[in-house]
Structure formats: C-alpha cells, structure tokens
Design goal:
By secondary structure, the chain is mostly helical.
Length: 249
C-alpha cells in the first residue's frame, strides 16, 4: 500500500473535516459560507475562492477525489516535495476556477446585457436575481433572459476535482509511460495518451452540457482548467530541471 505523504494526508483530513461539518452543522449553512458562488451573487465572499476546494457535494464525490489524491498526489509529492506539490495543487484549483467562471460569465453576460438593453438597470436586474423573481409587466422574452441568467447567478462550485486534475496532469508528465485506467472502464492506457483523451472528453461534455454519468452540474471546464494549469507548471519544471529552476530541489 502506498504510504501517505504529509501534505496529501493533511489535505485529506481537511476535506473530511469540512464534509463532516457539512453533514452535521448543516449543508445549507456550510454551502452559503464556503462553496464558491458566482461573483455577482450576494452570497459571494472572497474566501470562497479557496474554501470551495475543500467542499464536496456528497460522500461519493469526496471518496473519489480523496482516492485520486492518494493515488496520484502521493507519488507526485514524493518527487517534488511538499512545497512544490502544494503549489501545483492550489494553482490547479485556481486555474480550474478561472476557466469555469470564465465559461459561466461567457454565458451569463449576454442575458444580463439583453435585460439592460430592454430597459432594466444593473441594480434592478441584480435585485430580481437575488429575489429569484421578475417584476410585473415583463415580457416572455425578458422572463426567459432572467431565468437563464438566474441559473448561472445561483450556481455554486465545490470540490477538489480541479486540484486533482492538476496533480494527475503533473503525474502524467513525470511518468508518461505509466498505464492508467478509469474505474468503470478497466482498460490500461499510457498516461501520455490517457490524460489528453480525458481532457478532450471533458471539453466536449462541457460544451454540450452533458456528463457520462448523466448529471447536469459537473464543472467540466474546471477539470480542464486544473489539468492545463498543473500540466504547464510541471512541464516547465521538468524542462528546467537541470538549471537554477530545477524542480527536484
């Protein structure tokens, strides 16, 4: 059995504590405080940029992410050390957040601007979104714009998946010949093929708003953003491992 490294162990403990808090103190309260809200939402707070990485939507969500963190995070930390491992981990989480929020804004702003063009002010639109209802006299088209904007306004992001994807990408660059496989598709594939194929699938599912598991709330672009961020950092460190920026010190 692979021995847990210190940073991986501490990350797992924090994630488990946050999950227990969600289950015992109250999911709604914890989500209100610590899940990542859309920045225009009145429930958004700056600390959510970090805390959402330790929140999970359910036991299986937590279990799968922590299993992946143990499997891939441990060998990555053994090679890089704790400081560089944590740098990749949190950078990947931020990269995941940036790409997913960018996609949300890309979808949100046309509806927001259409409502402004139809005669509403920014403050009026935000007030309607906060109260989750329109005003008398709105046309059917305006109601549709408001409904579409509200979905994105009320969305929350939770989970360490973006961080984990960054670690997975780093592992793949360190060990391109390692054979990986999905739990539900036990066919071993070399990491240098497996990870790019996984990212292409994630991007396609994100563009189509679908999931291979049938869910509608999976942040596929967060997975892509996390993997790209972690992969770029690891590629740079590996490329410069024999100069002053070497990654194995």
């Amino acid at each position: 059995m692979i021995r847990l490294t210190d940073s991986v162990k501490h990350l797992i403990i924090i994630n488990v504590i946050m999950f227990i808090g969600t289950m015992t103190i109250g999911g709604n309260l914890f989500y209100e405080w610590f899940a990542m809200h859309f920045p225009k939402n009145e429930s958004f707070n700056y600390w959510q940029v970090l805390t959402h990485m330790f929140m999970h939507a359910g036991f299986m969500h937590l279990a799968l992410n922590m299993f992946g963190l143990w499997m891939f995070g441990t060998p990555v930390e053994q090679v890089l050390g704790s400081k560089k491992f944590l740098f990749i981990y949190f950078s990947a989480g931020l990269g995941a957040l940036a790409l997913q929020l960018g996609e949300y804004y890309f979808r949100f702003m046309p509806y927001f601007n259409d409502l402004i063009a139809s005669g509403f002010s920014k403050s009026e639109i935000l007030q309607m979104l906060a109260s989750a209802r329109g005003v008398d006299g709105m046309s059917a088209t305006q109601h549709q714009y408001l409904q579409e904007a509200y979905y994105l306004y009320s969305v929350t992001m939770v989970g360490a998946s973006g961080c984990l994807m960054g670690i997975l990408a780093a592992f793949g660059i360190m060990n391109p010949e390692a054979r990986l496989m999905l739990i539900f598709l036990p066919i071993p594939v070399k990491a240098k093929y497996f990870i790019p194929a996984l990212l292409i699938i994630e991007a396609i599912l994100g563009l189509r708003g679908q999931s291979i598991f049938g869910g509608a709330n999976i942040a596929h672009f967060a997975h892509v953003g996390g993997a790209i961020t972690g992969g770029i950092i690891m590629w740079y460190w590996k490329k410069n491992q024999f100069n002053k920026n070497r990654w194995d010190l």
